[in-house]
Amino acid sequence: MSQSGGILARETGTTIAYRRSPGKNPGIVFIHGLRSDMNGNKALALEAHCKETGRAFLCFDLTGHGASSGAFEEGTIGAWASDVVAVLDELTEGPQILVGSSLGGWLMLLAALARPDRIAGLMGLAAAPDFTEDLIHAAFSDAQKAELVEQGRVLIDDCYGDQPYAIARRLIEEGRDHLLLRGPIDISAPTLLIQGQRDEDVPWQTALTLAERLVSSNVRVVLHKSGNHRLSEPEDLRLILTNLEYLIYILALD
């Protein structure tokens, strides 16, 4: 099966790096997490699986990540959600299953709300809607909140790397325009949520709250007792692929 990669130039002046392979629909679109990219273990496992099963696949780097343009610190939830909608519109055809990891899980929901007719199903992997408010800003000390207002940014430790990184004031404030867990989420697509119970970044209860908020009657939550936030170990990847095939099977019954 052929594979193509390239750069999507947007009207905003930004560019999005992507990689895709053709195949049958519904296609799979993978949306990575915060400060990750399209070359992580989950993206590569999904890509290989889609090639083996003849299914269309697309992965890409959000702006400010990987090979896409822009600086991470300038990113916002709205801009990243716009990236997802852009690749849906420009790089895919027909119904798609969005697979969102962490931040990507929030973005897949926003994209599904923006393009409901294009979404066959959703799969969240440690999906983190509203994390800027509920998990980052809520955890800031009073001193950090003051620094965020006065300096426009706060440096926080990266538990996955050696260097701290900046959370910008605009990320927190703009994120409030896209909060979803405060009420019903008008998405009716079949949805499958996989959540590790040893996740130190996103509480596993978030998956249950999200399931309650979705208006869809076809929502399945899979709690992985030994899974952490990354869900990138071999057993995690097997769980993801098995449940993806279950979701595809459910869609075929409709």
Percentage of residues in DSSP E strands: 15-25%
The whole-angstrom Rg is: 17 Å
| Low-pLDDT ranges | none
User: Quick one: overall form?
Assistant: globular
Mean pLDDT: 96
Distance between the termini: 28 Å
| Number of extended strands | 10
Summarize the main sheet. 8 strands, mixed
Enumerate the strands of the largest sheet in spatial order, edge to edge or round the barrel.
1-2-4-3-5-6-9-10
Secondary-structure element string: EEEHEHEHEHHEEHEHEH
Structural class: alpha/beta
The helix content is 25-40%
List the total number of helices.
Answer: 8
Could you describe the 3D structure shown?
- The protein is an alpha/beta fold.
- 36% of the residues lie in helices and 24% in strands.
- It has helices at residues 41-53, 77-91, 103-114, 131-136, 142-151, 169-175, 205-213, 234-253; strands at residues 4-9, 15-21, 24-31, 55-60, 96-101, 119-125, 153-156, 165-168, 191-196, 219-224.
- Strands 1-2-4-3-5-6-9-10 form an eight-stranded mixed β-sheet, with helices on both faces.
- Helix 2 packs across helix 3.
- The model has no long low-confidence stretch (mean pLDDT 96).
